[in-house]
């Protein structure tokens, strides 16, 4: 059974991804216009399709990290997420300077949800989740106990 902190992590992190999708939908035209107004980006010929490709790649990485953290208890994935969250927090001032209205509010909400989700990974009840995965034999789901003697 997964610890409460891991369940909370999962809910907050997946929730932040949903808010991110909503934010993209609401900010799509502004993002495309901003990209097209940048001469360096215009030289590359990037347009609306690039926004969708970049967002999709980011979403794929996020979902892979979620899976390996919440379902497999991977410490490596946890630390990658910590690094990505730190980078996101460091870029928050730039976002605050360029975003407006609902996009600004959603950007702050996304960052807060992800920060709290990452904090959940360091609570005391989450530690065994990551320690357990290191001792799980290959092919065994991480939330399946390997020592069945305690169930006798």
TrEMBL record:
Can you name the source organism? Allopontixanthobacter confluentis
Task: Report TM segments.
Answer: 12-32, 44-69, 76-97, 103-122
Keywords on record: Membrane, Transmembrane, Transmembrane helix
Task: Name the chain's protein.
Answer: Uncharacterized protein
